[in-house]
Amino acid sequence: MKCVVKAAVCLFFLLSFSILAAAQKAKASEIIPPASYQEPHLERSAALQALLNSAVGEVLASYPSGSFPEKDLAATLIDLRDPKSLAWADFRGEQPIYPASVVKMFYMASLERQLEDGKVKLTKEVDRGLKDMIVDSSNEATQYILDVITDTSSGAELPASAFAKWQYKRNRVNRFFAAMGYTNINANQKTFCEDAYGIEQQSRNYKGENRNMLTTNAVARLLAEIVLGRMNTPERTRTMMDLMHRDPTAQTTDQDDQAHGFTGRLLIDRKMTDAKLWSKAGWTTKSRHDAAYVETADGLKFVLVIFTENRGTDKAPIPTIAGKVIDALRKLP
Q: What is the pLDDT of residues 9-21, one digit of tens each?
């Protein structure tokens, strides 16, 4: 009898130790905000709201009646000229929208936190994947990077209990941003040129119910926080900014790339060769989005995020709204 009791006690402690070890390992793998992190104070500006509403309204009104409804556009503007007092405005900025490749910016920020904390090792392959994900917007690179930061991988569908564990790890990016106060977003899916299969489709709940969804407010906030160095160290901030830097003046055979086909098109058309652009675009057959940070020679510094839906081939709205925003910002005191 004593042997049975001893065996039971040993089993209990062994299981307890295993559970504790697993919990500690899971906690050690989490993506943690910087120790000094504080949510940014964003002050809604009536002046910015008026100019953004005007810019969006003029563009929507320029299309035949009813052909470009308000529900197909969202935008957020943040003025970064005073980093201590961030004025902002939005147009449907809290509406969750499928972000296409813009979500890769969230994966980049997550990976850089893991690298800084030593939870991921910067190998040549990780470095290559990060670059290709942001600079070339490679979906294959994104699939790899998301596996790295969440310790998951694609494959066959899993039974419910095993899938729940897999999905918990895949939600690591969501928990990271939730810890910093980001709301109303979902960033836990790979991007594909065609479609998801197996466990990736299982993760989407087969009907797209768990697809990536971002708001322009959340995207604008993240871009502003990267620009201001709030997400990481100066060195890693510089890395992220370098990856997002675009040169609209560079020669290209692809006039629809991230530097030339979105906000950059405005800088090209106006010959604003002295302006600087950092961005992450996203586009599909139905969606056309851009998250841009712009600095002009006359001192403007602003983040402008524009999502358009059901207009994947319409290249006009994003640069047109950006142009109207710049003109209006220049008139503000």
A: 555 545 444 433 3
Alpha helix locations (H) across 35-184? 46-61, 104-116, 124-134, 139-150, 160-170, 172-179
Residue ending a domain, choose from 214, 230, 249: 214
Strand partners, 291: 280, 305
| Domain residue limits at 142 | 98-214
- Exposure of 307 by Cβ count < 10 A (0-12 exposed, 13-18 middle, 19+ buried)? buried
Q: Can you tell me the distance from the alpha carbon of 90 to that of 297, in angstroms, rounded to the nearest whole number?
A: 25
CA distance linking residue 153 with residue 170, whole number of Å: 9
Judge if pTM exceeds 0.90: yes
Please give the Cα distance from 101 to 255 (Å, whole number): 18
Domain boundary among 197, 214, 231: 214
Distance between CA 289 and CA 282 in Å, rounded? 5
Spatial distance between the Cα atoms of 105 and 118, rounded to a whole number of angstroms: 20
> Strands 42-44 and 86-91, how do they pair?
parallel
Please state the φ and ψ torsions of residue 52, each to the nearest 5 degrees: -70, -45
Region of 281 (left: φ > 0; alpha: ψ -120 to 50; beta: rest) is: beta
